[in-house]
Amino acid sequence: MESGAGTSKAADAGRIAEAVRADPRAGGMSPGATLLVAACIGLAAGWIDLGLMLLNSRVIQRDFDRLGGDFPWLIPSGVAALLLSVGAALAGLYLVRRRRPSPRWVVGVLAFIASLDACARLPLELWASLLLSAGLAVQSGRWAGRRPDVPLAWARRAVPLLAAALLAAVMVTRGGRAWAEHRAVSSLPPASANAPNVLLIVWDTVRAASTSLHGYGRPTTPNLQRLAARGTRFDLAFSTSSWTLPAHASLFTGRWPHELGVDWKSPLRRDVPTVAGHLRDRGYDTAGFVANLDYASVETGLSRGFAHYEDYPVDLLDTLDRYVGLGHRMELSTWGSVVSSLLEKASGRPMGRIGRSREHAKRATDVDRGFLDWLSWQRGRARPFFAFLNYNDAHSPYEVPDPSAPGFGLRPTTLRDYLTLQRWNQVPKASLRPEDVQMATAVYDECIAHLDRRLGLLLDELDRRGVLGNTIVIVTADHGEHLGDHLLFFHGCSLYRQLVHVPLVIVDPRGAATGRVVAGPVGLRDLPATIAELVGEVDGAPFPGRSLARSLRDAAGPPGDAPGPLLMETTPPLVMMNEGREPVAKGPMRSLVAGGLHYIESGDGTQELFSLEGDPEERFNLANAPTAGDVVRRFRSSLESMASGRKP
């Protein structure tokens, strides 16, 4: 009897234990176990997210990753952080309710978020992603409910391995980059004695027509005007394209875009010499600090020749918004920017990084800080430097850069205003009200004024450090912006003057003429040859452009030989920002500036001709004038000659 009773009690105890494991109300996961399972699922989902990202960008889309070099570890760690935050919330239920969450609910909820993150990388509608994720969550929860001990056991074995793989990815990416920079710097040859520094500043998306340097009614660029008084201002400087990558590629190589292989999905060719590489081979420390993360990053090829190059920032908010698939798909930056902007207006206090869109993950202050920190290290090496600074603050979506600074009229006040500006690239332009365009223009002008203030502060700091007196300073822009002119918005969509006429100021402190104004047309393609001559490294310089150095030294007369035609090019973008109304929707476009005229040829053969002096807004097309036939034919012949490599 005693033996039978003991056996019965043991059996009852076994049934009770089994019931406890099966019944979520009778037991549950401790906070520590919940976090461990969340880390396991998060890391595993992160590696899946990474694989889907690479599959989509490199196999399906064949496009740039548009992520920094740290993405192999930032994506898994970002997804793990997301799942850990969900796990922390579930663990917090124990503290609030004094009741542990069941394995079924823990695994189900975590599986739902992990599945949503994976679906964000797939071409699925929201309803399909939710349905698929819910189904996976239910099945995962049922499995965990039947075997409540297994998720924790698996997590204990898998987390160390997944974490070790993450650590290895960190060491390979960051360690490899640091080692490559060390090798590049340590192998530099001696530099010429008294070689000047070169500081190249590019204001992304700043058109000449919106700068007070060129007579704009609003005082957007007083510091640039003061800088021009110490050097040379070029009144008709033209970029080679109306969007970032080909414009920068020409600016670095002295070649036309069609010679460089660059396009919306194609980086700069590897076999083309760059000004950074030319100066590096002559003993210069070279560094780039860019804020346009889509088309000036390392993967575009613009970093070639630079020993040090900073593009994508590494911080938690940017990781969750840019790298994590779910955060990127949900446009967290857009909504965060709108909410924080409204809070800024209500409280009167700036919200900082939370109020910035994905496009503005790096502001002018971040670029300046990166450059000055690098300069503090570099100055101990007693070498000349070539530094390239790219600022993206004037790029859409338009955001008030400094609410405490005086504005230029309309600022966003309502939720609709903020959403209109934050979704400027996607909003149907036909639905815009006149006051929307006025507001966007005013905020765009504020952004230019902000860049100008930062320019003044940067130059003052360089002067305080004793660097400015031996530094050639070049300030320009890569392209402009349409703000309703020609019924167009954004850039890359045409070759009208609003997109290709940019500011250009060059200051050489070593006795060059001051306050000089060059009225004739020049091209940014000429800058590599100009830099090579200014630093005294003309011999062997591989840049075909025409040097503008004489225009800085000669106080009278034309700047050297008569310039040839200036070529500008653009191709249809991946997304049309003007609902297909843009001229580039018809096919690749080309234009020429020569003889006081601007000739534009669209992909369908449409021709336009404008007077540079008499029609700066390009409102009156002269191509069909009775006397313009021979002029148009000469322009078209010149275009064909330049495209084929012949001298026009």
From TrEMBL:
Q: Could you name the domain of life of the organism this protein comes from?
A: Bacteria
Query: Which molecular-function annotations from GO does this UniProt entry contain?
Result: choline-sulfatase activity
Q: SUPFAM superfamilies of this UniProt entry?
A: Alkaline phosphatase-like
Q: Where would I find the Sulfatase N-terminal domain in this sequence? A: 196-536
The record, for InterPro entries, names: Alkaline_phosphatase_core_sf, GAG_Ulvan_Degrading_Sulfatases, Sulfatase_N
By its UniProt entry, which Pfam families does this protein fall under? Sulfatase (PF00884)
Q: What is its EC number?
A: 3.1.6.6
- Protein keywords: Hydrolase, Membrane, Transmembrane, Transmembrane helix
Any transmembrane segments, and where? 35-55, 75-96, 105-124
Transmembrane helix recorded as keyword:
yes
Tell me the first and last residues of the signal peptide. Answer: none
The cross-references to Gene3D superfamilies, in alphabetical order and at most eight, read: Alkaline Phosphatase, subunit A
Major enzyme class: hydrolase
- This protein is called Choline-sulfatase
